[in-house]
Amino acid sequence: MVEETPDGDGVGTSGVEVRISGTHFPVTTLGPGRRLGIWFQGCPLACPGCMSRHTWDPGGGRGAGLGELLDRWRAALDAGAEGLTVSGGEPLAQAAALSALLEGARAVGREAAAGGRPVDILVYTGHTDAELVAAPRLWEALRHADAVVTGRYVAAEPTDLVWRGSANQRLRPLTELGRRRYGPHLERAATGDTLQVVGSAAGGVLLYGVPRRGELAELERRSRAAGIRLSDPSWRP
Ligand code: SF4
């Protein structure tokens, strides 16, 4: 349940809890520049071939207070973040919490913008544009996003488009800042690194980004050749 009460800095945080898979800064493969990434936990959409099956279970991950997440956003901004990317999991499976997070992140980001450094908010959702139009409650939860990537991952529709996993997915700028920042990338193919490899505190390895066609299979092949066994990769059923 989400119950919002404004606190001292005008950003409501009391009682808002988000089930998350994790956070990371800096993320460089999910949107322009160095970004804070927040991954929601829980996805009912179950796309075949999803690389993030560990985020499907709504009871997995951990609970995080909105205050904690906004503190991470403030710290990322202090460290030079250019944007926030919210992914999952399916962020809209926790629509009220997402809405509160984006509203808070927008308010916190205004300070950076006032200092001449606008910061954008990008949200990934597996819902299609048509589903969002048909569900005003979901669309409303995205009102503080500058851009969204919409649509299921469809393994049979590979793409080279930057920040998208399959050709059916749409990158949609929603604000003036979103149009400025994402407009030049709508038809651009990905270049450079598309996956970021980060060691996790639990001792495993986390991959952030959108793999190119065949990239995960190649990673498994190379790991095997190097004598490294990948145990329970998140893209295997
Ligand atoms: S690709 Fe995204 S929407 Fe599809 S199952 Fe995975 S987390 Fe859910």
UniProtKB/TrEMBL annotation:
Its cofactor is [4Fe-4S] cluster. This is Radical SAM protein. GO terms for molecular function: 4 iron, 4 sulfur cluster binding; metal ion binding; ribonucleoside-diphosphate reductase activity, thioredoxin disulfide as acceptor. Keywords: 4Fe-4S, Iron, Iron-sulfur, Metal-binding, S-adenosyl-L-methionine. The keyword S-adenosyl-L-methionine applies. Pfam families: Fer4_12. InterPro entries: Aldolase_TIM, Organic_radical-activating, rSAM, rSAM_sf. Gene3D superfamilies: Aldolase class I. The keyword Repeat does not apply.
